[in-house]
Every structure is written in C-alpha cells, then in structure tokens.
Structures
1.
Amino acid sequence: MKLSTATSPPDSLRLAGVSKRYGSTTVLRDANLGLQPGRVHAVIGENGAGKSTLLMIAAGLIQPDEGEVQTPGGSTHQRGLRPGVALVSQELSSVPGMTVLENVTLGLPESRLGSLRRGSARRVFETACSTVGVNLPADRRARDLSLADQQWLEVLRAVARRPRVLLLDEPTAALDADGSARLLALLRSLSDQGMAILLVSHFLGEVREVADDVTVLRDGSVVRSGPAGSETEDELVQLMVGRSLSTLYPEKAEVPESAPVIFEANGIHDGLVVHDVSLRVRRGEIVGLAGLVGSGRSEFAQCAFGARRVRSGQVTLGGASARAPRSVRSTMRAGLALIPEDRKGQGLVLGRSIQENLILASLGRVSSFGFVRRRRVTDLASRWLGATDVRARSALSRIGDLSGGNQQKVLIAKWLLREPLLLIADEPTRGVDVAAKVAIHRLLVQAAAEGRGVVLISSELDELLGLAHRILVFRQGTVVAELTGSAMTPGRVMSAAFGAGTRAGDEGMS
C-alpha cells in the first residue's frame, strides 16, 4: 500500500451530495467522494450497492438527480465523458470489426472525423503500448482477441487519451494473477505521475495493495470513506454486507479413495490449443484447473463438453462407453454441464426473463407435445431461485436487469436443474461481489456433496485452494502438474504455471 502524502492537493474531481433514482428505486443516496491527483481511490461494495452508478456519474455518462460533480473548472453538468477523464468500463466497449489500432485511436481529441492519420495513429498506439507494457497486434480485429486481451485493449484506449482522471470498473475481472499484478503496477505508476485514479473492484486484496483511500457503499449509501489501511479485509467485508461472513470457503468434505470415477478424459487433443490432456473426477470430488490465461483450461472444458472439435481422445461419463465428444447435445444427454466463463455472451439471453433463462437447457422437462407447461415452469423457478438465493422482484424480471452475482446464480441454477453427473464451472465467481461468491461456493460444494463431480476453472488461487480436493496445472495446452494435500500451495501452483520447475512427484495423473 502506498504511503499517504503530508498535504492534500486540490481534488481533480469531486462528487458532492450526489443521488440517483430509477423510478421508485434509489440506487445512490447523498454520496460524497473526492479524487486527488497522485492517489488511487477504491470503491467497494456488493453488487447493486451503487458502485457502477457512482463511477458513471463521475465519468459524466449519467446525470445525478441531486448533487453535483465538481472539477477544477467548477461544477459540470454536460452530458458525455468529461474532458480529461478516461473510463475503463466493466462492459467491453471496443468495436469488434475494427482493428486494435483503430479502436485505440478512435475518437481521440486530436482526431478529425473520428480518426487519425495512419502515421500519427501508429505513434499514439506505440506510446500507449509502451506506457501500459503490453504488445497487442495492431492490425488484429478486436473480436479475434482473447477476453483478457480485449480488457487490455480497453486499458490502452483509456491511457492513449492521456487523462488527468482515470476511472476503472472491475478492470482485473478478466485477467489472471499475472495480468492483475501487471495492471496494479501500472496504476501505481500512473498515480506516481500525478494521475487521479478511481478503482471499482471486488478484490479486497488488490484494493489494499494499490489504494490510498477507500469508500465503502452499501445499499446506495456511503458507510465509510477514508485511508485504505484503516480496516482489515474482514472489517471491510462486514461494512459492505452489514454482517460478518464466518468463512469464505466451506469446509472440505473428504472424498474416499473408493469413490467411483464418474468422469474420465483420455488423451484429449484438438490440434490447436489442447494437447494430450487426461483427467479423472470421482463422485463428490472438486478438481481445480489452474493456469495462466491462454494455458488451455477453458479450451479443454469446451472439448469435453462437445463445444470444440476434438481430433483425438475419448471421454467416459458415468461408466458409459468411452467415445470422443461429438456434440453439446450428446454430452448434455450423458450428464455433463458447462457453466461458461462469459455468462453474457455464452450463458444467458439478457433480454429474456429469469425463468426463461432458467429452463433453457431443460425444455424437455417442462414441455408436453411441444408445449411448455407454464405451471411447471413457475414451480421450478420458485424452487430453484429460492435454493440459489437469487435476489429479484419476480421470476418474470428481465435477467439483464439483475446484478452480476444474481445473473451468475441463475446461470448455475440453469445447469443444476438438469441434475448433471459432472458440472464444469469456468470462472464461476468472476465479476461478482463477496457475498455472491460465498453463495456460489456453497452451491458448488453442495453439488459435490450430492454426489456430482465438479471441475472448477479459476484464475483466483485462493478459490482453487479453498474449494478443490486436487489441482491440475495447465501450461501450453497440457497438464504439467497435479497437486494434492500439503503440496497444494500458491508457490507450487504458480511455479508450475510459469514453468519454473515442478518438483518430482507433483506431475502425472493419479
């Protein structure tokens, strides 16, 4: 954590008594917050606490109903991004069909008709890449980038504008541990150069590492604002949720050696990313998959699920005959379920209702002769939304209007409704708050306790160590280490992920 300066310079941007309502719902209430040059100010709180609304008001993209936003030039009420302010939003905003270079330089103040001359654009792009410390291919289209590289593209776009104030909403949610560390180092460097930074994050460890000041929101109100080192992480959690969370990870249930193997993959190879991956999961077992972004974890999951072409290798599920995954439909029928890492692009239909999304993978269970039985849908929705603690006005609410944590719980319920033998969860807590994480962890542990197998893919080491019975580490598309018991340590996981030398006995399959 950075040391506080002796004197406080004038604020680069200040929210004074800001409130915002949507209909009868107040999402932000009399909020005060000041951003100072050379300091990182973090805002934390549960999903729905008002963090993103506060950030969008600071940016100028949402107008407050009461209060004002003050800058060195006085109070401002214009619509659109404020001069000298850059935003890295939680929702990726790059233009998919444009190149990386075109996205970075699009709409810069010095551009004409929205773009720069090629030579000038290249210089701006190279300067931004040097500042951020990434090397994205300038001529690749944004839609062809990985999710992590799309996040770096957002950062490049913001830094290229040379802002006085930088606002970031969950910027590390799509990054692995290495990428997150690099981004936090960048924020420290930018603040040392005099930039004022506002960081919205669910990760309390990174907040305490990089932030000078922290503001805690709960139910739209500021419940605490001050130096970041004044409270412990446990105290910050209690401020956020209004109660103490006894433990983030439930106690692990022991899986006996005699437990039957319900899933086995042998020699899975896709010819591109995944190379000769083998994996076994016992009944009631949670197996964690660790590795850096691009290590092949998600691609292996897609192969096993039939969503990615398999060139060689076989899968056995529930004792059935071994065969190569042929299609998503066939693996679903065999008892496999996949919670994808991109819930909005691959898991949910945001414009439809909660209950429509819930039954999407189980239409056969709620239909007769091609017609959906509405009473059956209503009953299932009531039972599963209660079991997963989804907070919504009704099951008919549009799922796109829910917080990220509640959307994720609906997505998990959608697949648990099928009662699968094996549940693959790819980054199931990405972009959700602490309370939602606890709820999701309990759902995964409960699924294992009911006799299902669980494969957990996560970029959060604490999550893997806290939930998994075994951890398999991926690097360059293959499994390079298997860790169990006392060998499951952050150091050994990261050493294997980076290829820094895996100890004898850590490698191979049991």
Note: The longest strand covers residues 25-35.
2.
Amino acid sequence: MIAEVINTGSELLLGQVVNTHLAFLGGRLFGHGIRIERQISIPDGAAIRHALEESFARRPDVIFVTGGLGPTTDDITRDLLAEMLGAELVQDDGILQMITERFERRGFSMTPRIALQALVPTGVHPILNHWGTAPGLHLPASDAHPHTFFLPGPPRELRPMFTELIEPLLATLFSQASPPVCRIHRIVGMGESMVEEKIGAQLMALPGLELGYCARSGDVDVRVVGPAAVVEAANRIIEAGIGNRIYAHDEGSMEGAVVDLLRTRKLSLATAESCTGGFLAHRITNVPGASEIFGAGYVTYANEIKSATLGIDPALIAAHGAVSEPVAAAMAAGARRISGSDFALSTTGIAGPGGGSEEKPVGTVFIGLAGPDGVQVSRQFYPTDRETFKFLVSQTALNLLRESLLGA
C-alpha cells in the first residue's frame, strides 16, 4: 500500500530545522505494509491547500500531514482543512478540558489562541495528544479523498502519538496477511562496488527481491525487501559472501556491536583520545548498558596532559611527535594500565585544516589497541572535514576492537 507525506513548516525549507519525520514515519509504516511513495516539504500558508488537493487527486491509500496545528497565526492547517471540506469548526469540550488541565498543572495561564486548538472540523475525528496541546486529526476516507492523518509538528509529540494511537488504527484500517519484510546488513571496510561484486549477481537472481545499496561514511548498507522466504534466502547469500565485515543489522550500530561483544565476554574497555576529543567515548556511552564494560575515558589533547595523565615519556613525544605510532601505542597501554581495563583504544591524528606535513599530511591518524596480547597500532588516512574525520577514526577504532574480539 502507498502513502504520501506532507511536511509543513517554513523552518524546514529555510534550513533552520532538520526534517526527521520522514525517516521515522517510513520506518514505522513499513511494518504495516505501507510504503511512502512521495514526500514534500512546504512552507506555512496556502501551499498546504494545494499540496492536499494534489495528494487527494493522486489517491494514495493514506496521507500524513505534519505541522500547522498549533495556536500561533502561522498554524492554519486546521482552518484550511475545514475550508476544503466546507465544514464548520466546532469546539471539542473534551480536548479543551485536556488543554486547560495541562496548563493548570504547569501553573501557566491560557491565552485565547490556545483554546483554538480545541476546534475540530465536522466530520473529522480528533486524536488526543497526551504529550502536548494540539490534537491530531483523522479525516476518514471517502470518494473525494483517502484516509488522511494530521499530526503535530514537534517530534516529542508526533512520535508517541503515532506509535501509541495511530499505529493501532492503521492495523485495523490496513491489515495485511503477509506484509513484506525488510532487512539491512551494515558492512564496514568495503566499497559499494566490491560488495556488489561479491553478492549482487546471486541476489538479483532471487525472484521478488528488491535490492538496494547505500554508501555512508566508511560503511555500506545492503537493503533487501520482499516476501519473508525470499529475504531469508537473500540473508544467507549476504552473510556467506560478506562474513565478519557485517557488523550490525537494521538499526544496529558499530558501538552497539562492540558493547555487546564485550558484555558477552565480560570484558572492559577504556579510551585515550586526542584528535577525536572524546567522541569515541561518547559513542560507547550512548549504548544502553555501556556502564557494564566502560571503565574510563581520557581526553588528552595537549602533549603535557598525555604525559601527566597517561604517563607517556615526554622524550617519546619529542622524538616521534604526538601523531605517531609509538605515541598511539603508549596512549593505549597507559589507558589500559591506569584504568585496569582489559582493552584500551587510543586515537592521535591531524584533523586539519592545518597542522599537516609532507610526512604526515592532514588526515593522518594512528589508532592504538592495547589488550591482553599486547599493543597494535593502525595508521589510517582520512583527508576530510573535521566532523567526518572524527567519525571515521572512531568507526575504525571500534572495528579494530571488534575484529580483535572476533579473532579476525
């Protein structure tokens, strides 16, 4: 089944706010056998009416509209909908009571415009908002239009409203005996063309399979969609062809994979970072349960702090430079020793745009891994912007540990 999404809000088109609704809705809808075929972002105002008229004419199975339901003068989605339907706006006393009680609990006074959110066009069903004040709206399907849902713009309101209230309704409206299955394999250390060369021909031979590749910084995603049995066959081909280069599936992450491996083996980790400035520790501690495996993180940006905190001999830094294999090894070994952890990762490099040399150009990085079997150092080269550099370095460091834990 097909869905269309209309995201309203001038802030989306001015670059002031990142539109996260499409990714969220696309992922949630797929589980109900609904694919988003078209999405547009439009400014506040009359463009909302034009977008709705166009979507109604195309007649998808369902339409989702986000934003424009609040109390300010630019929130006119509700009014435009009433005009299009030739419907009257009627106050819903239950919604008004919910809004009033919410303001009373918080000790806020209501302005007259706040109460406008309780107005609902006749023939339209309100969807209660337990996470904000603006209710959602459901326009049931008719000969003139498909089922259309109007959702508040703030993600903190839209997401729980969608998962808790709208998804059960979708399951009733659009039940499917065997919805398609989607599986994403996340691969590190291989380019798109190399991945396709290994598995592409076999996958293309599977009838009814939708295949897609998505290259990201340092990674490639392989996406397979289709009937459950076909996707399972595709999974076997991919896993046999790619092996341990697959570090996670679907929404999994490299840091999640590493934390899980360490927890399973009851091992601990510390970090010593220079060029990544704590980003490696940040990624690890974003994983629920990281406290079971993460002992300490040291950000030793300055040379004197490397010596004072990690016990690195200043003469070693003077002889080889802070960005060097010996210093990366000493940082990892020092972090492991001080923290008492089973493993320690270190990063030292030149993020740029300045600071490089002919021997060590901008983008050079040394990544150290200290463990029970000693210390190893990997030299890499990522000549890119600082933010991407930090991500690539942290991804490579985590994968170095992952491969060590897997014995690869």
Note: The longest helix spans residues 386-406.
3.
Amino acid sequence: MNHRTLGRTGLEVTDIGLGALEIGRPWGIKSAVDPGMPPSLQEVDSLLRRALDLGINFIDTAAAYEDSEERIGQTIPDRRGDYYLATKFGERFKTGEGSHYDFSAPAAEAFLEHSLRVLKTDYVDLWQIHCGANDTQTVTSEETMGAMVRAKEAGKARFLGVSPGTVEAAMATIEMGIYDTLQLTYNIFDRTMETSGVLAAAKKAGLGVILKWPLGGGSLTPKYARLDAAKDKRVAKSEKLKAIAESHGMTLTDMAFRFLLTNDCVSTLIAGTRRIEHLESNVKNSGLTLDSSVMAEIDGIQ
C-alpha cells in the first residue's frame, strides 16, 4: 500500500486507513436485509486482522463508537506494533440514549484512561477532540487543551488532533498551534473544506489531514440505491457519477477514493466497513489518482 506523511507527526500512514465506527455501533444506509448492525466479535477479529495483513497501518476509533474501542482491544492487542491507533474523546454515545458531550479536563482524563484500558494499550498515537456543538469554543478551550498537553507530556498520547464540524473550528484548530492533525468531512458531495481553504491552510501549517465520510456515508457506493430518490438529491447525482466512473473502467466507489487521493493535502482517508470483501476492494485504490479530464467531468456534475 501507498504511504503518506501525517503532517508534522512524521508518521508514515497508509493513504487508505480503517474507520472503526461500524464494528461497534449501528450505522449506515439500512435496508430490510442489512439493518446496519455491528458484526460479531469473531467477524471483527477477522476483519481487523485482514486489514493489517493487507498493510493498513492506521485505525481510527472513538469513545462515541460505542463498543469499537473495546472490540479492538479484544481482538488485535497482540499486533499493536503493526498499526497507528487514533481515538477521540468528548462524546459518549449509547444506542437508544444518544450522545452526551463533556470536554472538561476531568472528563478528558477519564475518557483517555477508559480508552487505554479497553484498547489494552499504554498509549494512543493520536488523541483527538470529537467535537459537538460550539466546536470553535471547544478547540480553543484552555482547559481542554491543557488536559491534552498533559496527556502528551505523560506519554499517553503521542500526538493531538481535532475532528471539527465547521470551517471556523477547523481554522481555529490550525491557528492554535498545539494540534498536529485535523479530521475532516470531505468527499465528492461535500467539498466545503476544500473550497473554504481549510485543506490548503492545514497543509501549509504542517497539520496531517484525515478524511472522514470519504464515501458520503454510503451514498458513493451501491447503497445509494436504497435512498429515497424523491427526497434525496444525491441519488440523481450518484447515477451521473456512476456513469462517469464506468466510462473510465472504475466503480463509483473506486472513483470516490481516487478523487480524494488526487488532492495532495490529504494524508489518509478512513473508510469504514463491516465486510472483508469491501475492505479488500477499497485498498486496491491505494496510490491511485484521477487525471484532470476525469476531475473536470466530476466538477461538471450538477
């Protein structure tokens, strides 16, 4: 697999990483035959080990991914040296109850201690704020930053990052100077972080850029057919994008990955899946980009 440098961390990460949300929490565009439930622990073990065997060396999880951290700790602690481990704090989620946020110093410390315990590790390579509402206030909070810096000084977190929801918070993250990475939503459907200048600013400042939602929450996969075309404008656009992809010998999903990898501001993208066959198909796009003519066709889709 192809590797890129994760900004000033110096970590050489695979350009396609693994997002671990789906192994711990119900997720996705659901259907009668696919309710989006997490796989069994045995299936998680097989999936994670296959990811490592394929060469993926960056795994991103979060306290808000319900059982994800614990399942990673239950399955691959013996291979801790094979991958960089990123997790997030500040949000706690439970099915049926929703999310609860707390970015205070005591909460941050408790989040990290819990993460380390269930992940069965002494440190995480990247510890990130999992922003909620008022994300700019959160990333500039001296209390939150102080807790993160102390964790880094104690050797419990090698590097620090933020997963913001707004352009304002992303720019504030860059300006604060203590954060090493940004985890951003960016895909063919949502290019806000590109057009706003965030991606370019992050690169210039030396921050690593991790992309979440690379497949638009499933709408850049065959699952888009499950959406209600009368209510979701992405369906018609996905059909047009699929036609472009197939005219160039790609699947829609292949083109979605390569679109992102064409941008040299990107360090890695974290694609989540519950199925080994999807994982294997995803990593085949490592190191591949789109030429300018295909990019122009994508830009022309309304």
Note: The mean pLDDT is 96.
